[in-house]
Design brief:
The chain is 21% helix and 46% strand. By secondary structure, the chain is an alpha+beta fold. It has one domain (59-225). The strands form 3 sheets. Strands 6, 7, 8, 9, 10 and 13 form a 6-stranded antiparallel beta sheet that branches. A 5-stranded antiparallel beta sheet has the order 1-2-3-4-5, with no helix packed on it. The longest helix has 34 residues, at 2-35. The protein starts with a helix and ends with a strand.
């Protein structure tokens, strides 16, 4: 009888031990399964198709559209338009011109102006320049935070000689504005003139990738060789 009791106790011991081991293994399998699941990190930023000839926001802008972008980001859908009023001479023989940038955001089913940049030369008695630097328009998400960054450069001057123009880089991320100001570069006969550069204090509050990109764009545009 004692032998039967011993066998029965031994059976119960091994059965309970095996059940605990199976439970532990199941827990390990569940943990491993969770660890193998990929991170669901997606970016909300996406550039959309845009046709500058569709005459967006005609009642809200000045000048002729020369470029534009449309994109969707973590905030909403946006459209930015770059327009110019070409330099012209008035009846007094003086020259004037202007550049504009307008950004609109979709809010509550309607479009609202988010920000506006305008710069101009007025009543220049010699030769006026006021124009965007070609191909300098970009919309990016350099810091991968889901918010689009608009960046562009332009130059302006009123002068009667061959010398550098004033040069500006403007960048917006949402409603935050950043700028670099200085001058274009003239290269001739192995010499160089101009190239002044001052980074606005606003960039100290920007993510490093934004300033890196702005510096790269600054160095890329605004060089004239003779």
């Amino acid at each position: 009888m004692k032998n039967y009791l011993l066998l029965f106790c031994a059976f119960l011991f091994f059965a309970c031990n095996n059940s605990g081991q199976q439970t532990g293994d199941a827990g390990k399998k569940d943990t491993a399964s969770k660890a193998l699941q990929p991170d669901k990190q997606t970016t909300a930023f996406k550039v959309l198709s845009f046709d500058k000839n569709e005459h967006f926001f005609e009642d809200s802008i000045k000048g002729t559209v020369v470029e534009g972008f449309s994109w969707r980001d973590a905030e909403s859908e946006h459209r930015v338009l770059f327009t110019t009023v070409p330099v012209k001479m008035n009846k007094n023989g003086r020259q004037s011109g202007a550049v504009y940038a307008y950004c609109f955001i979709q809010s509550g089913g309607a479009w609202q102006k988010e920000w506006e940049v305008k710069d101009r030369i007025d009543d220049c008695e010699v030769d006026a320049t006021c124009e965007f630097l070609p191909n300098s328009f970009t919309v990016t998400d350099n810091d991968n935070n889901g918010l689009g960054e608009v960046c562009f450069l332009y130059k302006l001057s009123c002068k009667g000689d061959v010398s550098p123009d004033e040069k500006k880089l403007i960048m917006y991320e949402g409603a935050n504005k950043y700028a670099i100001r200085g001058s274009t570069i003239l290269e001739y006969n192995g010499s160089k003139e101009g190239g002044d550069k001052k980074i606005d204090a606003s960039f100290t509050k920007a993510a490093k990738p934004l300033l890196d990109f702005a510096n790269s764009q600054w160095d890329k545009f605004g060089i004239t060789k003779y």
